[in-house]
Amino acid sequence: MKKLFLLIAIGFWTNSLQAQNLLAIPDTMNGTSFSLDIIDTSHVFYPGFSTHTFGVNASYLGPTLILNKGDSVNIMVNNRLMDTTTIHWHGLHVSPQNDGGPHIFIPPSTTWNPSLVVRNNAATYWYHPHMHMMTNLHATLGAAGLIIIRDSVESALNLPRTYGEDDFPLVVQSKSFDANKEIIIGDAYDSTMMVNGTVNAYLPVPAQVNRFRILNASTERNYNFGLQGNLVFQQIASDGGLLDAPVPLTRLVLSPGERAEILVDFSGMNGQSIDLMSFASEFPVAMYGSVQPGMGAGLTIPGYTSNMLNGSDFKVMNFQIVAPTPNPVTSIPSVLTTNTPWPIGSAMATKTLTITPSVMGPTALQNPFLINNTSYDMMVMNYSIPLDNIEIWTLTNSSPIAHPFHIHNVHFYVTEINGAAPPPNKQGLKDVILVPAQQTVKFITKFEDFCDPMYPYMYHCHMLTHEDDGMMGQFLVTCPTTEISERDILINSISTFPNPSNDRIQIKNNSHEKIKSIKVYTLQGKCIANYQSLGNVEINIDLTSFSGGTYLLEIEAGKHRIHKKINYIN
Question: How does residue 9 score in pLDDT terms, banded at 50, 70 and 90?
Answer without folding.
Answer: very low
